[in-house]
Amino acid sequence: MTYTFFLQEEVVKMSDIPSIENSKNVIFKLRDIRNWREVIDDLVWDVSGTPVVFCSIQVAKYIQRHVPKLASGLIISNKSPEPQIGMSSIFDWNQYSTFIPIKHLLNPKGSGRMMTFAEAMDSDFDLPERVFVRPNTGWKPFTGFSCPSDNLWQELNALSQTEHVDPSEIVIVFDEKNIVQEYRYWIVDSQISTCSSYSWDAEDICKKPEKDIDNYVESVLQYPDNIGLTEYVIDVAILGDGSIKVVELNALSTSGWYGAIDYEKLIYDVTKIYGGV
Fold it and tell me: Which domains, and CATH codes, for the chain?
């Protein structure tokens, strides 16, 4: 079996990725390209064998709706039928926070306030000094962020203008946690494929996690596996007290790569879920 990996440069953060046996890589870049939809449409001419796509959520949404020849290569979830982006999915906070035990979650149910985006902007309720705000949906109409509670209205107002967030979008407001380091794990066939640290600080160098963090993630994999979820990424955080917590789960195809991952192993492992090389 042969494969074509379509890799969006803004997501994989690399412009040159060697192909593995029986596959080829097509790397495409969309930043600052006004007619990016036409670029995606033209990718179908590069399909040879089975397509596999790693791209942004916006691009995945377009592919799902308009490019069926590539849509089969999106690893959004292995539930059948595939959930369309924008619909409720297992990557919504209210869903995965139900099947992963509370003790493992950075932000478990009962620890935050769920409301509409508009209600959060009218926040006349008591809040801690600093808060963390995230959308409920895993399809990320905006990226979760921390801020002083006094600045919450300004932050949300800016998002409403730059990201055009629907006022009815469901969000959750949590107390900010003391996070020391965060790691992303790519899970394929319910096994760790590869992993890397990540940070919002561009100066930080990505690194592999310690073995005890690997062991922790392996202990959590049983819970997604119990409901048939076998391909995804899981983000975990190391807190100031040394504890490890699950930050969130996201779709494999639409999650950004980081510098310490073994991308050749990830690509090889993904081919196995399609039937092997």
Answer: 108-175 (3.30.1490)
Structure letter (DSSP) for residue 117: H
Instruction: Transcribe 176-217 into DSSP letters.
Output: PP-EEEEEEEEEETTEEEEEEEE-S-TTPPP-PPPHHHHHHH
CB atoms within 10 A of CB 194: 21
Helix (H, G, I), strand (E, B) or coil at 59: helix
pTM score: 0.94
In sequence order, the β-bridge partners of residue 198 are 182
Q: Which two tokens stand for residue 152?
A: 């919450």
CA dist 275 and 277 (Å) reads 7
User: Which residues fall within 8 angstroms of residue 151, CB to CB, at 6 or more apart?
Assistant: none
**Backbone φ/ψ region at 50: left (φ over 0), alpha (ψ -120 to 50), beta:** beta
Exposure class string for 66-87: b at 16+ Cβ within 10 A, else e? ebeebbebbbbbeeeebbebee
Among 88, 90, 84, 86, which residue's Cα sits nearest to residue 71? 84
- Residues 65-118 have pLDDT tens digits of 999 999 999 998 655 445 566 667 889 999 999 999 999 999 998 899 999 999
